[in-house]
């Protein structure tokens, strides 16, 4: 969870700031004169208590308290034109080390596909001393949607994600979440132009351009995706160019008996648009699995994931993180073969138990994720759980640690959460 200063300061590049500011102005200004029955305002407040128990012996447990307020605003101007805006404001009381370090070796920067952004953290600033308190902000949505007979067009900051897998989406390379991310309710917004064209009864052609910093092609992405239904099966074919790499993806979803089945695969041609750096190896990623509702209160699934970007030996994990799959392709798992079973049981209509395991078959090591949730009242939830790493702990001799298993090198994360929706 390394905290980094977001790029694109206001005033340094005025033309870039207009990209996200203009949709917000178009939302706010019409509300002063147009009927409020087309205006919808909602959001939530969330509070997380977290504790990190390092895999390194004799290291103290460190913690954080995060309070997050999100406001969502949507305005329907006409049947064909609408606006969306979402803003997050968060405070953190945490160990000072969490402002400059992340507890695990790998992470994904979900804010990398943005032309410009608000400064975050608001506090501490560049010249402020780092203590235990921080204030953060995130303009997560600011988009215009236009619906016509031939297509739906969306311009601005929006969520873009693909894939049907339950645990690890092989085709999702724009702004995915890692497995032990606590708050995954809303996908991170990216700056994009997106066009969806209906084809037939259940088909769709989906294309767009995702903008990186300074509109730079080397930091941007484009995609073309087709979706159709045949023989009671949903098929999707995807082509994505991102940061000078090219990915071809395929997704299949159907029912087998009373169970659901999915297969998702992606092959990445590394540096396909960069002739000067074409020596890195291409790689394949796939996920396949099944889920089943055993009764009205029990649901289970199992998924297998293969990552050709990973490596077989734990001693090579850290060295392999310099490959394009990790620096550009949103890959964070360091091994190759994974199995992920999960089970959810509704104890009462208000209490739900769930458990998942992400198992690195080659190490072997595992990341256990038990959780309990209580629906206190309508739109109010209380939950507690953890992500517990099982496996050989890293060696700590010398200046740098050495992995002996993947999830044995993860810190144990324990959390509680309180959520209110409005």
Fold and architecture overview:
The protein is mainly beta. The protein has 3 helices and 18 strands. It has an 18-stranded antiparallel barrel.
List the helices and strands and how they pair.
Layout lengths: L13 H15 L10 E15 L8 E15 L4 E14 L38 E15 L4 E7 L31 E10 L3 E8 L10 E10 L2 E10 L2 E12 L2 E11 L13 E11 L4 E10 L9 H4 L3 H4 L9 E12 L2 E10 L4 E13 L2 E11 L21 E10 L1
Antiparallel strand pairs: 1-2, 1-18, 2-3, 3-4, 4-5, 5-6, 6-7, 7-8, 8-9, 9-10, 10-11, 11-12, 12-13, 13-14, 14-15, 15-16, 16-17, 17-18
Short précis:
By secondary structure, this protein is mainly beta. The chain has 3 helices and 18 strands.
Largest sheet: 18 strands, antiparallel, barrel
Helix content: under 10%
Round the Cα radius of gyration to an integer and report it.
22 Å
Shape summary: globular
Low-confidence segments: 1-32
CATH superfamily: Porin
Helix count from the secondary structure assignment: 3
- Look up the CATH topology: Porin
Order of helices and strands: HEEEEEEEEEEEEEHHEEEEE
* First-residue to last-residue Cα separation: 28 Å
Q: Quickly name the level 1 CATH class.
A: Mainly Beta
Helix-and-strand structural type: mainly beta
Strand segment tally: 18
- Give the overall average pLDDT: 89
In percent, how much strand structure appears in the residues?
A: over 45%
Question: Number of domains in the coordinates?
Answer: 1
The CATH architecture term is Beta Barrel
């Amino acid at each position: 969870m390394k905290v980094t200063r977001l790029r694109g300061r206001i005033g340094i590049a005025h033309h870039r700031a207009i990209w996200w500011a203009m949709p917000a102005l178009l939302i706010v200004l019409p509300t002063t004169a147009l009927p409020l029955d087309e205006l919808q305002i909602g959001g939530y407040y969330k509070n997380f208590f977290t504790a990190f128990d390092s895999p390194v012996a004799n290291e103290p447990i460190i913690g954080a308290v995060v309070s997050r307020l999100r406001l969502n605003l949507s305005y329907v101007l006409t049947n064909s034109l609408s606006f969306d805006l979402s803003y997050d404001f968060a405070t953190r009381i945490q160990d000072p080390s969490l402002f400059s370090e992340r507890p695990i070796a790998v992470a994904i920067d979900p804010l990398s596909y943005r032309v410009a952004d608000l400064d975050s953290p608001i506090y501490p600033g560049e010249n402020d001393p780092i203590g235990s308190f921080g204030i953060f902000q995130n303009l997560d949505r600011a988009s215009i949607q236009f619906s016509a007979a031939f297509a739906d067009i969306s311009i601005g900051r929006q969520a873009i994600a693909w894939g049907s897998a339950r645990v690890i989406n092989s085709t999702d390379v724009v702004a995915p979440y890692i497995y032990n991310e606590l708050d995954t309710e809303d996908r991170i917004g990216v700056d994009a132009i997106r066009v969806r064209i209906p084809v037939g009864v259940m088909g769709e052609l989906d294309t767009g351009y995702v903008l990186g910093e300074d509109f730079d092609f080397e930091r941007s992405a484009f995609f073309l995706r087709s979706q159709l239904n045949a023989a009671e099966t949903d098929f999707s074919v995807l082509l994505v160019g991102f940061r000078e790499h090219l990915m071809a993806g395929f997704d299949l979803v159907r029912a087998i008996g009373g169970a659901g089945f999915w297969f998702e695969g992606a092959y990445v041609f590394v540096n396909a648009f960069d002739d000067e750096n074409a020596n890195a190896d291409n790689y394949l990623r796939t996920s396949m699995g099944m889920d089943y509702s055993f009764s009205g209160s029990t649901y289970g699934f199992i998924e297998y994931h293969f990552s050709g970007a990973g490596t077989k030996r734990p001693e090579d994990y850290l060295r392999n993180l310099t490959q394009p799959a990790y620096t550009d392709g949103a890959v964070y798992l360091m091994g190759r073969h994974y199995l992920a079973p999960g089970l959810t049981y509704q104890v009462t209509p208000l209490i739900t138990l769930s458990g998942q395991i992400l198992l690195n078959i080659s190490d072997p090591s595992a990341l256990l994720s038990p959780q309990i949730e209580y629906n206190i009242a309508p739109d109010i939830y209380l939950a507690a759980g953890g992500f517990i790493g099982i496996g050989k702990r890293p060696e700590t001799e010398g200046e740098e640690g050495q992995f002996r298993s993947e999830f044995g090198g993860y810190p144990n994360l324990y959390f509680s959460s309180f959520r209110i929706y409005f």
